[in-house]
Structure prediction request, 624 residues.
Amino acid sequence: MHQYILIVIIFFSIAGVAQKQGQQRIDSLLAVLPDAKEDTVKIKVLYDLSFTYHTINPDEGIKYGKIALSIAENLQSLKQLAAANLALGVNYLMKGNYAVALDYELKALKLSEETGDEVGISKPLNNIGIIYSKMENYKKALEYYEKALKIYLDNDNKKNAATTLGNMGLAYQGMKNREKAIAFYDRSLKMMQELNDNEGMGRNMMNISIVYQDDHDLVKALDYETRAIKLYQDLGNKSDYALGIGNIAWLYFLIATDTSGLKLPDSLQNKVVLLHKSEELLNQAISINKEMGFKNLLQLNYGNLSELQKYNGNFKNALESYKLSILYNDSIYSAENTEKIKSLESQRTEDLKQKEIEIQKLQLTAAKNERWFYIWGLAMVLALFFVILNRYRITSKQKGIIEKEQERSEALLLNILPAETARELKDKGKSDAKMFDEVTVMFTDFKDFTKLTENLSPSVLVNEIDYCYRAFDTIMTKNNIEKIKTIGDSYMAAGGLPSSNKTHPADVVQAAIEIQNFMTERTRAILSGELEGQIFEIRIGIHTGPVVAGIVGIKKFSYDIWGDTVNTAARMESASAPGKINISGVTYELVKNKFVCEHRGKIEAKNKGEVDMYFVQWSMVSSQ
Prediction:
């Protein structure tokens, strides 16, 4: 199982003017504006400008929208007031200022309702749904989408109805209600087929693909994604085509590395071919996205390529791809920060001008009446004193809050990363990958986990796993072992890192025995009625050897290890038996004087040939 990111293709169609949008339209509107003498004509041009700017430069859109709003207020025209508020709402939405956007759209809705214009009502209803969806208040978003959908269907507006159905699918997907998400995507897809809207069909197919991927139905996900990119290829839509082939590349990778026993058609049986196709498509996506200048997709593509290269053992290229992923991520944040700095500089210039005006007024007053000048000066000094005093109190309070947040961040970081790695990350801003000559890696896995949990609700399932993993975490801490990660019902840990030691083989085997004892006692308690829960049988595998360790990712940091040792430890687990601890011959030689083990002989391990394996029976020494 691997971490992944897929970009959801959004349907959000901002309701507004129906005319063609873009810089060309803006230029023509700006040319017409000076000749618009009557307010009724001018306001329509201003509203059109404001709306057209929302995808290009929302700040300009807001400027023209506020002028339109001012004229509409003078005209006392409800319809024009609604239009101006609608345009301002979509511009603030594009800036990510959802609270202000919602306020304007609600005003537009109220004004449209007063005019009784049903088509006009549908526009703010749709936009309010989008805003709530952006705010992840999906239940509220659905309320407004349903009202807009009814109006679209009553007026036989199939295009907008199809778009809204897709938006509702997104909302249900956000609520993790995948069955309803697919149902609404299907309705939208059928309507767009009737309209011959191939681009809309492609959006639906890609979103359905993501739902199936979330359900681990990778074959269906691949089918929908493949159909979508065929449409985009025929349309000449390079940007969505590039996104689609990047997603297909990742699906190939997931299918090739899947260990859950997926039923695959013959065309997907060859793992080597799938991995080769995955790399080929990722490089193709990177080439197109470079040409188009899509930095966010380049960040995603390079990150996935790094994961693929790491899996293939090509660590040098994996590191280079990972660096490029970070580089594009940094450039995205840099561009955002540049815009913020420009905005702040503009505000500062305006503030300075205002201060100059205020100072000139004060100087003029002082020249007329020197006595009042001194009184004013004294008042300013006193006011400044109280401002400084108040500021000091606020700063002290903020300092306390910041210190608490820093402590909280520190604790959170230490909960995610080893202490030594966390310190390096704070000191240097990064953490270098390290080679460890010898560590001991342990994998655990619950027998028939998927079958056992078919009848369990998600909340019960999570509670069961959490109960076991909390106990495992305590055992790891007690035995000086580093927990690496959990992948579904698989638990991975390693001894001998991030600080090397000589006791790690015995530490890990001892921890495995304690896990085995915990699971045995848990089963006894469930059978006797002392504890409620699902009985799990656990397999444990252990191997010792060299690994590379380091941090993966830039968000949601993950400390991970790589190398043949990790793969061999996983093989030890899969070759183990329920309730047994299976160790390799390498680990046995290091712990044979501390634990009684049963030689199993040479056993075939996937991609490893025949390997000496041993079942651990018991410890020769009592644990501390």
In short: Strands lie at 434-446, 482-487, 490-495, 538-552, 558-562, 581-584, 595-605, 609-619. DSSP finds 22 helices and eight strands in the chain.
